[in-house]
Every structure is written in C-alpha cells, then in structure tokens.
Amino acid sequence: MRIDIISVVPGLLEGPFSHSILKRAEEKGLAKVQIHNLRDYAIGKQKQVDDYAFGGGAGMVMMIEPIAKCIEALQSQRTYDEIIYLTPDGATFDQVMANELSLKGNLMMLCGHYKGVDERVRQKFITKEISIGDFVLSGGELAAAVLADAIIRLIPGVLNDETSALTDSFQDGLLAPPVYTRPAAYDGMEVPDILLSGHQAKIEDWRFEQSVRRTKERRPDLLDRE
Ligand code: ADE
C-alpha cells in the first residue's frame, strides 16, 4: 500500500512513520507513506496557499489552485483508490472503515487547516471525507496519522502473531477482554485462576464472556448495531 499525505505543516507528520510498527511496515515493503508539502505547489512569490473567505468572517480558507496542482501531480504518477479529506464534518472513522481501507492499493489524504478547504476542492477531487471524532483539531495531520496507523497495522504481514489484529477491540464488534502478565499476584490483586489453568477452551470462553460484559458496561451502543 502507498499513502500520499498532503499538508501545509509536514513537520507534524515526521514522527509517527519512523517508529515501531509503521517503520517496520515500510522496511518490509508493505506500506510506504510519502508526505507532500503543499507550499511546494503554492502560488506566487509569497508562496500563498490560503486567502480570505468570500462573504467575510474570521479565518482563512485553503485555495483550490495549489491543492489542484499537487493532487494532479500525484495523479499523473499513479491511480488512487480514494482521495480522503480529513475534516470534523466527515463520517466518523471506525474499525470497519479501517478494515475496508486496508484492502486498498493507493490512498491520498488531504489535511485541512484554518477554516478548511475551498468547497470546490471537495466537489472536484475528494472521494471520502473522514473525521476522527467530534472535536476540532488545529489541522488534519494528526487525524491523517491516526488513519494511517489504524489502516497499516491491518495489512497482512505487518503485525506478527503476538500483536495480531484479530484479537483487537472492535475487530469482532466487541471490546477486548482484560489481560494480565507476571507477577500472578501483586499487592493482594490476583490474576483470575482460569488464566493460569491451562484449559485453552475454557480460557477462550472466559475471554469472550469478559468481552461481552465489558462491552455491555462501557459501550452498549456497539451491541445495538446489526
Ligand atoms: N481536522 C480538524 N479536526 C478534525 C477531526 N476531528 N477529524 C479529522 N480531521 C480534522
């Protein structure tokens, strides 16, 4: 998979992809993330990428021309399965979307800033609008990093057995069960006997019960979905 991310603050995206699982995914040749500085496609000597909103009001709007130049330059090199715009008014990201996007070949992500992008960018180029939750970030970069992380870890071969995504929360529609490691007793708190019993089938039953209980308590809305 290849993910191209367009940003006016590319520095915000330098960290996440050079560590741990995401770095390994790139080293294994399973996922490549390329950051593009929108300013490289800016207009005029001022390197302008935003302007005042028609109709007035506080806040700047990202202009269509630099974004169009950047997107078209990328499109001339490869075909994209989705061109995603990160925005608080998009569809809320979840594990189902992460699974779907992990099956794609090439993704482009556009990070908004200021008051957002000129509406015509959305009309002309964007195929999916995604929010990571009902709150407003100062830009789409951290949201793009969240998406990329959730998507890349699902690509077959990225995780090894110990970190398999199959047992993650949400992957089966339930929250994950509690987990324990050594020591078996700490400050009077004991690990449940069943986990030390060696009965694998009973352990799986217990984990499932705990998952259902935890989901009922914390996220009953997940059980109402079809
Ligand atoms: N940009 C600003 N806030 C955002 C959010 N909640 N999700 C995605 N992109 C955003």
TrEMBL record:
It is an enzyme of class 2 (transferase). GO terms for biological process: methylation. Residues 1-224 form the tRNA methyltransferase TRMD/TRM10-type domain. It catalyses: guanosine(37) in tRNA + S-adenosyl-L-methionine = N(1)-methylguanosine(37) in tRNA + S-adenosyl-L-homocysteine + H(+). It holds the Pfam family tRNA_m1G_MT. The keyword tRNA processing applies. S-adenosyl-L-methionine binds at residues 112, 132-137. Homodimer. NCBIfam families: PRK00026.1, trmD. Belongs to the RNA methyltransferase TrmD family. Specifically methylates guanosine-37 in various tRNAs. This is tRNA (guanine-N(1)-)-methyltransferase. The lineage of its organism: Bacteria, Pseudomonadati, Bacteroidota, Cytophagia, Cytophagales. The gene is trmD.
